[in-house]
Amino acid sequence: MFQKILIANRGEIACRVIDTARRLGVATVAVYSEADAGARHVAMADEAVHIGGPRPAESYLRGDAIIEAALATGAEAIHPGYGFLSENPDFVAAVEAAGLTFIGPSQAAIRAMGLKDAAKVLMAKAGVPVVPGYHGDNQDPEHLAAAAEAVGYPVLIKAVAGGGGKGMRRVDRAQDFATGLESACAEARTAFSNPAVLIEKYVEMPRHIEVQVFGDGTRAVHLFERDCSLQRRHQKVIEEAPAPGMTDQMRAAMGQAAVRAAEAIGYAGAGTIEFIVDGSDGLRPDRFWFMEMNTRLQVEHPVTEAITGIDLVEWQLRVAAGEPLPLAQEEIGIKGHAFEARLYAEDVPAGFLPAIGTLSHLVFPPGVRVETGVRPGDTISPWYDPMIAKIVTHGPTRAAALNRLARALEAAEVAGTTTNLAFLARLARHGGFAAGAVDTGLIGREIDGLAVAPPVPAAARVLAVIAAAGLHEGTGAGFTLWAPLRRAVDFECPAQLQITGPNRVCVEIAGTAHECRLAPDGWWVDGLKTSARFHVKPEEITVFLQGAHRFARPDPLDRIAHAPASDLTLAPMPGLVKAVFVLPGQVVAPGDRLAVLEAMKMEHTLCAARAGEVAEVLVAAGAQIEAGAALIRLAEEEAA
């Protein structure tokens, strides 16, 4: 076993690797950018080395600086985590040339699976079924359009070097192909420095089922499947293991295909074979096809660990150190069911736009596994993926594990930034999902109900008034000379509050009075126990009750009247302006593309909210802008 390793990554995966290394007695070295100087993974590691500026290209993608840090600190091996350099064969070669061990597959295996088109050809030769499509080298737009016609719409355009849903576009009609191709290639160029794409038949009722494999360079085993069908914008939201509806025959067929795939390239370490499955007629062994192989540890690996009892990071370290596979295939079994939900800083009603902010409050319920790279007080940066945590639950049955997940999501407390927590909780309670009727289109079909902002319970609003008055921790004994003290509370709506006794308050909102009392077990409102918790800041109050409900605290000195809806298109987040599609004087219709903003490794299209004439274009392609920056101004609408 190694004595010291360097982790060439950040955030929750770096922390995850450190946890296992500690348990095995292995010292760890962290690397960090300027933006991560105070990050959790830096604090957890035994040593830490600064490697550059906040942009990934200035730090976490600098293989030379990472290798230099490993040599300077006496690390024997480098764990790449996922993302960044984890699937870069040139980095693997450089690590080995420096006399260090790469904790992962060989550069040859990564190259074999690095391009989706070449990987599909290789898998077909190995007897692994592949999706119908075009995987050739000709990237001429007309040729690709003809290939799409031959495959038959709908089709999926996918970056050959892609991953994480980047460089991927579904196209339903021939007339939309050119726009989809342009967008996919631009995103692929930004994310992978490779704009090449392939074309695949889009499966109408697809399920995304992947198989965890582990090899020693000669032989491989599989650790069963994960269902990752709950996706939005081709990115996974909730994953589970095993897959609902899986039969013994289907599991055997997929497991054997995954092992053939791994052994065909002499795979060593943890990897995932991703399959697209036609779920229109149940799970059938003749209806699954190879999509791609991820030659690294997956974000969702904890659900596999939960059902098998195996620490995959430990296996990575042991096999990289020269040990054989710890278990044979027949020694690996499934126990129970597990789910993982990805908690992100993002605005779901606004189209899942990434959010930034400082995590002023972060509490997770006991009894669940939480993988996180942040702590209260940490800032969600615009430079990296906005993941806050992965929440993992396990139970003896699928229903039990899912119920635990729903309750954990409902009990989690996050303040300081906008999150997808309410969306995840609603998804975990979705009837179709609970019944196992999952496919990659579920979220898209149900988005109107899933993305709507949660209703604010009356009790939460009442308790926010109490908190705004500074009484959420109790009123004390108090006294009045003639009558209970009554006062107005500056709040979102007119409210009156009156202390009626020790830890007793009457709150009146919109003419309705609510009797409240603070008992040892929490606040009771109108005779009902609430179990509410509070996070109070000068500018806002968050009440955690059936979700998180944020209430702005008005500034009494602020007398600025709010104007009607602006004619400006504003940047919803910091980012890079990739393209501007309009000119002054141009007439646009609602929904027309105005500009594309790149932020947090994704492209976001900004569209016209109304019809009108472009009065000013206030930004140019290539500009780095802050959140709230004005981009496009439409001429004022003429009065009727």
Q: Structural class of the secondary structure composition?
A: alpha+beta
User: Biggest sheet, open or closed, and with what strands and sense?
Assistant: 8 strands, antiparallel
Taken from the alpha-carbon principal axes, the silhouette is globular
Helix content: 25-40%
The overall strand count is 40
Mean pLDDT: 91
Radius of gyration: 27 Å
* Strand order in the largest sheet: 14-13-10-11-12-15-22-20
Report the β-strand fraction as a percent range: 25-35%
* N/C terminus separation: 78 Å
pLDDT < 50 stretches: 478-483, 556-565
What is the number of helices?
Answer: 16
Describe the structure.
It is built from 16 helices and 40 strands. The strands form 10 sheets. An 8-stranded antiparallel sheet has the order 14-13-10-11-12-15-22-20, sandwiched between helices. Strands 24-25-26-27-28-29 form a 6-stranded antiparallel sheet, with helices on one face. The protein has a 5-stranded parallel sheet with strand order 3-2-1-4-5, with helices on both faces. The chain is globular. The chain starts with a strand and ends in a 6-residue tail after the last strand. Mean pLDDT is 91; it is low at 478-483 and 556-565.
